[in-house]
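quick one, 367 residues, struct below
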Amino acid sequence: MSDPRITKLAQVLIHYSLELKPGEQFMMSSSPLAHELNLAVYEEAVKAGAHVLTLIQMPGAREIFLKNASDDQLDYVSPSRRIIVEQYDAILNIGAFHNTRELSGVAPERQQRAGRAGADLRKTFMERMATRDLRWCYTVFPTHASAQEADMSLREYEDFVYGAGLLDADDPVAQWQAESARQQKLIDWLVGKDQIVIKGSNVDLQMSIKGRSFKQAAGKENFPDGEIYTSPVEESVSGWVRFGYPAIYGGREVNDIELWFEDGKVVKEKASKGEELLTALLNTDDGARFLGELGIGTNYGIQRFTKNMLFDEKIGGTIHLAVGAGFPETGSKNQSGVHWDMLCAMAESEIIVDGALFYKDGKIVIE
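---
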């Protein structure tokens, strides 16, 4: 029997996250493994009056492409992909993985080249997202592969995923609207601030957010959600950070990452595992060594590390930093074909904003 939470998730995605309207062009990209959710989303989108394009990805195809494509193929950007990014009103991507390590055998430089090819289109995508001219959301459908990655049974992982989305509530939209209001209070406090200092056992960083704005994340672009985020002034970041959680890119783990920043740029990097991939991605383009995001996790209902950044970057008691592309809606000018999130635990740490204590030992402490 179908899980009723799947229908509820489809309704939330179409009517709350994407706010789909009659006559809009809507593209949903997914995997055959998410068949139940795919049909539920499709039905809601059709009922909403949208013109729906479905792209069902073949499991394993990305690995085949990256291993066998010529340089011309790696550099190619499909005109149909460009039309979707430049003209469509809403996009939904559903992750449903048959093998979370599918790309672990792909040479880093090939992933790097493919990422660099899409940099200009990513810039357009980010700019349209910033103005809400393009509404985009990413979610996941629970699969055995993702459950195994998270060290859970499938049933346990389903409960985790749907619980993180507040889908057990009678009115999950009302719950996310309340979370939005809580996040907005934090953002209001941060308006007009300048200097951020982050200190702890894993981090000693300072940066400027002058002229930048924090944004809330309450189930619109990601589902589930739970963070506030900004893009620091590009040349302002200095100091050191160690990421205790593995960072995963293209199915490959990079462990014990340490980064040293000077004048905003990563000038030294280190990792106990995957350092070659780390360096390759940081060398993707001119913007890849600059910080594109500072995010603060606000979802204290997520406390398990699952090796899926959709959930992990939202963990209450963590921050995440992303090298590469920044968010134009926050004021960022940094452009890159990379946007790679890395997670840092904040126990025994603090965030000081313009001399005032904002965050201590994993908790926001302002009134």
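Residues 4-164 form a domain with the Thermophilic metalloprotease-like fold (CATH 3.40.1830.10).
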